[in-house]
Amino acid sequence: MDMDTRELADGVGLVTLAGRLNMVSAPALKAAIDELIGAGRPRVVVDLSGVSFMDSSGLGALVAGLKRARQAQGDLRIAGANEQVLTVLRLTNLDRVLRPRDSVEEAGRDW
Q1: Complete DSSP assignment for 31-43
Q2: Residue 91's beta-bridge partner residues?
Q3: Domains observed in the chain
Q4: Which end of the chain is more exposed for a tag (fewer CB within 10 A), N or C?
């Protein structure tokens, strides 16, 4: 999986992923989120538009990131999820907690 991390306006951290978010790549996502939060960016957007597949390990990494962000008085939002990722979120009812946004721009607004 390819991953890029950068800062958006107003100190929001962005993690952009491409490929498969599974047990092999989930630890790297957790580390990237932890790094952003540790650097003082507790508001994090994860761009899933390039993710072709997500399993329970990827879901666990997102939930762990959400928990860590909220502990730091921030939040984690996801954007651009495809139908497979949305199905995983719906089946686990986590779409109510990790409410998917259509775009990074939408996810980065109105904190």
Answers
A1: HHHHHHHHTT--E
A2: none
A3: 2-104 (3.30.750.24)
A4: C
CA 49, CA 2: separation in Å to the nearest integer?
A: 12
DSSP type of residue 97:
T
DSSP 92: T
pLDDT tens readout for residues 52-86: 999 999 999 999 999 999 999 999 999 999 999 99
Checking DSSP bridges between strand 13-21 and strand 75-79, what pairing results, if any?
unpaired
Its pTM surpasses 0.90: yes
| Alpha carbon of residue 61 to chain centroid | 8
In the three-class reduction of DSSP (H, G, I as helix; E, B as strand; rest coil), residue 46 is classed as strand
DSSP calls for 1-45: -EEEEEE-GGG-EEEEEEEEESTTTHHHHHHHHHHHHHTT--EEE
